[in-house]
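Each lists chain and fold; for instance:
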Amino acid sequence: MSTTAYDASHFQDNYPPGMRFFYWTRARNRILLKALLRHRVPMPMLEVGCGTGIVTGYLRNAGLEVTGIELGHPEVDPLVSPHLMLGQDAFSVDLTVRARFQSIGLFDVIEHIEDAPGFMRRLLDAYPNVKQVAITVPAGPELWSNYDVHFGHFRRYTAASLTEHMLACGLKPIAVRELFQGLYWAQRGALALGIGQNRRVRFDPPVEQPRRAIHAMLAAVLGIEHELVPGKWRGSSLIAIGSRA
């Protein structure tokens, strides 16, 4: 498998209990669902690098046929675990299983891969019936901070660099769009003030009310922003859909 800087030590920081209620997670999942439906991404989908299965579970609850696969062994929700393949390499799955999947999801994964185009090319070769790939990544190289170092990022993307990586692995971009423009400028401001290089790397998701309600409102605001703000404006994340060329 291609070199990755993400390992088991990061799961506790990245996926503490209640992370599915975190405002960013809520907003990203809703935007992702809308994009998959809008572009008619074919199912079933394999989410590669699914972590604790937060995205897999959300998309399945929305009616999409998604299975997650993860090299690590994180603690997962028992309701999602039947749809996850933990401790498995996506390239080692039996060919009869691989042949089922019509699409692949890489949600905040390829920034952890040193040779991202090579990794995606291998996935396309290993999954011959995959027609489309959906991707989310952190955006804005100028936002680079201790957060990226801690979580083993090799890069933050621009729309141009993500498009370049997609083309290099044999994907034709259908859509490449910036997300979370408000968060982008908040992070730029923090960096300008000299405090953005000391971000918290341990998430503090809401596990009780009323904090869950506050995070739900913040997620709703990000959803409204996504509908109103042009997708070419700089954001702190990118979402892309590509088809096999």
